[in-house]
């Protein structure tokens, strides 16, 4: 695998050199100045070629420093060396601009362990901003990933995108404009997402098919959906569970849903604060929900036909408690619009779809709604998908439930706090 990655990178380097100065030239070591054990990338010369060369030639333990400035890149970067730190001069000072990127790849792909990415920005990638795959103990810190033209279905799908990894730390990250999810963690275990801002994405923060995640101290605002906790069928890891969503500000997530047609997030109603779909043991507490026009909290089953025998499409053992709510529910969108019309046009703070059956199975999900009596709840009474309007039976009665133990805090070996 590493040989294949190296070969692909070499091909990219040749293309970069040709684009940069009209001819292909070998990379000279003198282009890279080493200071205090770190590799310093000069702002002069062919920045993109020099940076990729440093990523290829790095040894475990290397720090690669990028200077202040805005640097145009036409080809994505890749890193496949363990224990490398890539650092800029600040997330508003070192900007890697991929506006002229050829192809549809990510801006930076990481496939190695114990990597730290910090203090730089990535803009306008054709594909994902930063993707890491199989990269254990990775740290995303003080980064900005954005599409500067605003919400657009042609923007890259994901801003920060770790998948198939253990021990993921994302903190002090800002993501704007992703056509799927700004901060997305998928098929991973032991995750912390904290103190970050996700705005003007389709989904602000998404935890998908993952186990043991803490999402706290974040601001999710002006997305179509603020925070999503999903589990989907037909993926290598199915059965996401044990997520805590707490101390977040989930505000005015009323941007139109601009996901390309066919994406699962295209079905998320604009104006959704938090959506939990087909996941288990999710605890939502001490958050502030403000002015999410469809519903602050939406609990839903996976709506499509399921052929994966490992998969349960219902949300189970969900706890919603001690949150603060204001505004919202006054302009439901998407599938919620006709359902809201059936109950007077507005929706309360917490809405469950009421699905209890799929295929030949049935189950009453254990939903613990432990909010003050002033917090409204609505079970739409759908029963099963696809929706049969004649069978819909809404109810405002909170469900009977059994206590659910809260998952233990996530502890990461690379987290020094």
UniProtKB/TrEMBL annotation:
Coiled-coil annotated spans = none
Q: Which domain of life is it from?
A: Bacteria
Pfam families attached here? Answer: Beta_helix
Q: Where is the Right handed beta helix domain positioned along the sequence?
A: 154-297
InterPro entries the UniProt entry points to:
Beta_helix, PbH1, Pectin_lyas_fold, Pectin_lyase_fold/virulence, SO_2930-like_dom
The protein's name:
Right handed beta helix domain-containing protein
Q: Per the UniProt entry, what species is this protein from, by scientific name?
A: Hyphomonas pacifica
């Amino acid at each position: 695998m590493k040989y294949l990655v190296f070969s692909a990178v070499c091909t990219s380097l040749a293309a970069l050199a040709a684009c940069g100065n009209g001819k292909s030239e070998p990379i000279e070591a003198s282009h890279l100045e080493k200071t205090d054990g770190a590799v310093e990338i000069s702002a002069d010369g062919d920045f993109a070629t020099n940076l990729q060369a440093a990523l290829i030639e790095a040894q475990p333990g290397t720090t690669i420093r990028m200077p202040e400035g805005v640097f145009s890149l036409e080809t994505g970067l890749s890193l496949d060396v363990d224990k490398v730190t890539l650092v800029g001069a600040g997330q508003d000072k070192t900007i890697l601009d991929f506006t002229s990127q050829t192809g549809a790849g990510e801006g930076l792909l990481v496939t190695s362990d114990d990597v730290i990415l910090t203090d730089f920005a990535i803009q306008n990638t054709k594909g994902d901003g930063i993707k890491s795959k199989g990269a254990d103990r990775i740290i995303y810190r003080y980064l900005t990933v954005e599409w500067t033209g605003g919400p657009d279905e042609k923007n890259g799908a994901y801003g920060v995108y770790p998948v198939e990894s253990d021990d993921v730390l994302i903190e002090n990250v800002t993501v704007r404009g992703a056509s799927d999810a700004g901060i997305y963690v998928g098929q991973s275990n032991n995750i912390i997402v904290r103190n970050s801002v996700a705005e003007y994405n389709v989904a602000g923060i998404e935890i998908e098919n993952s186990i043991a995640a803490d999402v706290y101290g974040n601001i999710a605002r002006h997305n179509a959906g603020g925070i999503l906790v999903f589990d989907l069928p037909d993926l290598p890891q199915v059965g996401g569970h044990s997520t805590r969503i707490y101390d977040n500000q989930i505000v005015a997530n009323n941007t139109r849903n601009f996901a390309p047609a066919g994406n699962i997030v295209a079905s998320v109603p604009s104006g959704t604060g938090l959506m939990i779909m087909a996941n288990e043991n999710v605890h939502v507490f001490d958050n502030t929900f403000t002015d999410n026009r469809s519903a602050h909290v939406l609990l839903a089953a996976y709506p499509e036909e399921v052929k994966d025998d490992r998969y349960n499409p219902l949300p189970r053992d969900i706890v919603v408690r001690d949150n603060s709510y204001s505004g919202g529910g006054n302009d439901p969108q998407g599938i919620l619009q006709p359902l809201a019309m059936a109950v007077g046009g507005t929706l309360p703070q917490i809405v469950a779809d009421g699905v209890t059956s799929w295929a030949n199975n049935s189950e009453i999900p254990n939903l613990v709604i432990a909010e003050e009596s002033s917090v409204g709840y609505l079970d739409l009474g759908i029963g099963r998908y696809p929706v049969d309007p004649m069978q819909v039976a809404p109810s405002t009665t909170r469900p009977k439930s059994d206590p659910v133990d809260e998952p233990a805090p996530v502890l990461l070996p690379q987290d020094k706090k």
